[in-house]
Amino acid sequence: MSEAAKGEHPADYGIEEAVIEDSWRRLAGVTPARIALGRAGTGLPTREVLRFALAHAQARDAVHLPFDSARVAADIAALSFETLELASAAPARDAYLRRPDLGRRLSDESRARLSARAAAPVDLAIVVADGLSSTAIHAQAVPFLTAFKARIAEAGWSVGPVCVASQARVALGDEVGELLNASACVVLIGERPGLSSPDSLGLYLTFAPRAGRSDAERNCISNVRGEGLSHDHAAFKLAWLLKEALARRITGVTLKDESDLLLVGGLVPPARIG
Amino acid sequence: MAYRTVAGSQTYAFADLKDLMAKATPPRSGDMLAGIAAATAEENVAARMCLADVPLSAFLNEALVPYEDDEVTRLIIDSHDAAAFRTISHMTVGDFRDFLLSGVATSEVLAAIAPGVTPEMAAAVSKLMRNQDLIAVAKKCRVVTKFRNTIGLPGTMAVRLQPNHPTDDPAGVTASILDGLLYGCGDAVIGINPASDSVPVLSELLKLIDGIIQRFEIPTQACVLTHVTTSTEVINRGVPVDLVFQSVAGTQKANASFGIDLATLKEGREAALSLNRGTLGDNVMYFETGQGSALSANAHHGVDQQTLEARAYAVCRPFKPLLVNTVVGFIGPEYLYDGKQIIRAGLEDHFCGKLMGVPLGCDVCYTNHAEADQDDMDTLMTLLGAAGVTYIMGIPGSDDVMLNYQSTSFHDQLYLRQVLGLKRAPEFEAWLQRMGITEPNGSLRRQHGIHPLLAAAPELAA
């Protein structure tokens, strides 16, 4: 480089030196934790600040993205389920976040509509709830129900209409299950999004659902998503728990999930229909 | 007893001291959820004006949570140090604020009155204080604790190295510990939140951390944050336990929802003391708290969440903890709605703890459904650094991949040390220099090649 040209290239100012990489970078392969990120002075390098910002943005969007309940209901109807759209008593997202109690009960209009149905007893009520991640429901509800439908057919369970509920928390299923005269209720709900898991679905099963049930009376299957528990495996687990719940007439802390004992070489056995 | 004041053109009445405290507290979604908050901004200030005229001694005569129903109230009243209280016994809450800010209230004076300050007095005066007051007074409070190093000396701030992993994988945990140590973190404790509650898994984690501490002679302590009764069981099986952990709250009923009472904590502390593992001191307890925990357990007795949080420090105080931290933004927006509320709560908690003589640190954190982001956390950690916070968390890249929330990072503590000149616990600082991790001025040394610490992960270093 000529003397004249010196000072025209960023490297001359040491910009390539500004980021200090960590010499233990290979440790990052053994944990999802954000280790060995390197540093710019005491701060994160630009690439890491942006990578974090993107993950946070995705998690925020998962919470605040409007729930497309009509589309979700239509897609579920295409699986030959009867569907109903319901709303909780929380009028909007802000109220939903501040007032968990409102998300746990139906709006007056939804309650009236559900009460007006002549409800013959069913084995299972299914509620699809946006919860804290509409992203999770948009992505996971239909593929999960596709897998679970085969388990319903295998067991021959009677199922009420799939209720697609907006601004809903888990306990909303208690009121819905009771009004639908269901022996048990499962709530598919968007879980609180983590920085690396904005689209995680949770499944909550409650035997003899009615308003006032505590969380200790439910069984939970968590982290249903591509990088977590597969739809097939989750459907298998839920079917196992439901079968036990209906036979033993309980859910909750006294019903332990032992479905893994039935896995064949670690794999989920297929549903047998017919 | 009822309280009454005139503000603007209106007379405001408050049913009792509990009602007055709840109406005087800065706006908080949790108190609104509980239905006990002031209805208007004017009522909020009217309550503060009224509270300013309440004598401190009123809090000894009118319990916010009934004495007969609650062992935390009994602990507060029965262990109150009347001699330490004498200096401030004639003051109103408003006088107390002026006194705390004055030059008369030196570090020595504040330490002397601490055993006479009940949590309700600390909470009451905090409600009259602006953020800068909370910082200025907390900065003067000194609370020093010891196990294998010295925490809380003036001009220092410690860091808990939090190497959580979604499945407690030993290699993954080790990798995060090494990363944290190489970033100069871990003097408060190397403390992991386990995903599992099985005794064999917890025992393996304890042995893993203890193995690293022993092998490299690190002047720090280990903790696996599990239920106090589980720690006691692990100790009885002969597993090395430095610190015994427990989450605590400000009412007996809320503590019962955690499966503990004061007797359980006493047993846990005695088990840890029996091992005699501290080299410099016997502060063997680690407690975590957080505003809103009593309400979420339906155990709040109509008392505002900030006052109940201060009562949690009264639960900690007799057990001489090494560390106490408020997990300020973890609970969610129904209790602390946004960055503004989280920041205010963090400063209040730190102030109340320090005024009561408790070694308060803060998990400066938020969840993704709260109206908060990294900028809010930068603000809170900087303010807490200025206030002399005992310690903060150190989590790789701020992202806790087990608990799914965001806290402060290994990088964040470097930033605070640089802009505020904060040192580590002196024994740990000296160790880092011996290991070639830091320069004499405390900044990180540039690493070349394989650092000797990486030998702790041979399968990784190969």
Automatic annotation (TrEMBL), chain A:
<keyword id="KW-0456">Lyase</keyword>
<protein>
    <recommendedName>
        <fullName>Ethanolamine ammonia-lyase small subunit</fullName>
        <ecNumber>4.3.1.7</ecNumber>
    </recommendedName>
</protein>
<dbReference type="InterPro" id="IPR042251">
    <property type="entry name" value="EutC_C"/>
</dbReference>
<dbReference type="GO" id="GO:0031419">
    <property type="term" value="F:cobalamin binding"/>
</dbReference>
<dbReference type="InterPro" id="IPR042255">
    <property type="entry name" value="EutC_N"/>
</dbReference>
<dbReference type="GO" id="GO:0009350">
    <property type="term" value="C:ethanolamine ammonia-lyase complex"/>
</dbReference>
<feature type="binding site">
    <location>
        <position position="170"/>
    </location>
    <ligand>
        <name>adenosylcob(III)alamin</name>
    </ligand>
</feature>
<comment type="similarity">
    <text>Belongs to the EutC family.</text>
</comment>
<keyword id="KW-1283">Bacterial microcompartment</keyword>
<dbReference type="Pfam" id="PF05985">
    <property type="entry name" value="EutC"/>
</dbReference>
<comment type="subunit">
    <text>The basic unit is a heterodimer which dimerizes to form tetramers. The heterotetramers trimerize; 6 large subunits form a core ring with 6 small subunits projecting outwards.</text>
</comment>
<keyword id="KW-0170">Cobalt</keyword>
<dbReference type="GO" id="GO:0006520">
    <property type="term" value="P:amino acid metabolic process"/>
</dbReference>
<dbReference type="InterPro" id="IPR009246">
    <property type="entry name" value="EutC"/>
</dbReference>
<dbReference type="GO" id="GO:0046336">
    <property type="term" value="P:ethanolamine catabolic process"/>
</dbReference>
<feature type="binding site">
    <location>
        <position position="191"/>
    </location>
    <ligand>
        <name>adenosylcob(III)alamin</name>
    </ligand>
</feature>
<comment type="function">
    <text>Catalyzes the deamination of various vicinal amino-alcohols to oxo compounds. Allows this organism to utilize ethanolamine as the sole source of nitrogen and carbon in the presence of external vitamin B12.</text>
</comment>
<keyword id="KW-0846">Cobalamin</keyword>
<dbReference type="GO" id="GO:0031471">
    <property type="term" value="C:ethanolamine degradation polyhedral organelle"/>
</dbReference>
<comment type="pathway">
    <text>Amine and polyamine degradation; ethanolamine degradation.</text>
</comment>
<feature type="binding site">
    <location>
        <position position="220"/>
    </location>
    <ligand>
        <name>adenosylcob(III)alamin</name>
    </ligand>
</feature>
<dbReference type="GO" id="GO:0008851">
    <property type="term" value="F:ethanolamine ammonia-lyase activity"/>
</dbReference>
From TrEMBL, chain B:
<comment type="function">
    <text>Catalyzes the deamination of various vicinal amino-alcohols to oxo compounds. Allows this organism to utilize ethanolamine as the sole source of nitrogen and carbon in the presence of vitamin B12.</text>
</comment>
<feature type="binding site">
    <location>
        <position position="363"/>
    </location>
    <ligand>
        <name>substrate</name>
    </ligand>
</feature>
<dbReference type="GO" id="GO:0046336">
    <property type="term" value="P:ethanolamine catabolic process"/>
</dbReference>
<feature type="binding site">
    <location>
        <position position="296"/>
    </location>
    <ligand>
        <name>adenosylcob(III)alamin</name>
    </ligand>
</feature>
<protein>
    <recommendedName>
        <fullName>Ethanolamine ammonia-lyase large subunit</fullName>
        <ecNumber>4.3.1.7</ecNumber>
    </recommendedName>
</protein>
<comment type="pathway">
    <text>Amine and polyamine degradation; ethanolamine degradation.</text>
</comment>
<dbReference type="GO" id="GO:0008851">
    <property type="term" value="F:ethanolamine ammonia-lyase activity"/>
</dbReference>
<dbReference type="InterPro" id="IPR044939">
    <property type="entry name" value="EutB_dom_2_sf"/>
</dbReference>
<dbReference type="GO" id="GO:0006520">
    <property type="term" value="P:amino acid metabolic process"/>
</dbReference>
<dbReference type="InterPro" id="IPR013785">
    <property type="entry name" value="Aldolase_TIM"/>
</dbReference>
<dbReference type="Pfam" id="PF06751">
    <property type="entry name" value="EutB"/>
</dbReference>
<feature type="binding site">
    <location>
        <position position="402"/>
    </location>
    <ligand>
        <name>adenosylcob(III)alamin</name>
    </ligand>
</feature>
<feature type="binding site">
    <location>
        <position position="246"/>
    </location>
    <ligand>
        <name>adenosylcob(III)alamin</name>
    </ligand>
</feature>
<dbReference type="InterPro" id="IPR010628">
    <property type="entry name" value="EutB"/>
</dbReference>
<dbReference type="GO" id="GO:0009350">
    <property type="term" value="C:ethanolamine ammonia-lyase complex"/>
</dbReference>
<feature type="binding site">
    <location>
        <position position="194"/>
    </location>
    <ligand>
        <name>adenosylcob(III)alamin</name>
    </ligand>
</feature>
<dbReference type="InterPro" id="IPR044941">
    <property type="entry name" value="EutB_N_sf"/>
</dbReference>
<comment type="similarity">
    <text>Belongs to the EutB family.</text>
</comment>
<keyword id="KW-1283">Bacterial microcompartment</keyword>
<feature type="binding site">
    <location>
        <position position="193"/>
    </location>
    <ligand>
        <name>substrate</name>
    </ligand>
</feature>
<feature type="binding site">
    <location>
        <begin position="160"/>
        <end position="162"/>
    </location>
    <ligand>
        <name>substrate</name>
    </ligand>
</feature>
<dbReference type="GO" id="GO:0031471">
    <property type="term" value="C:ethanolamine degradation polyhedral organelle"/>
</dbReference>
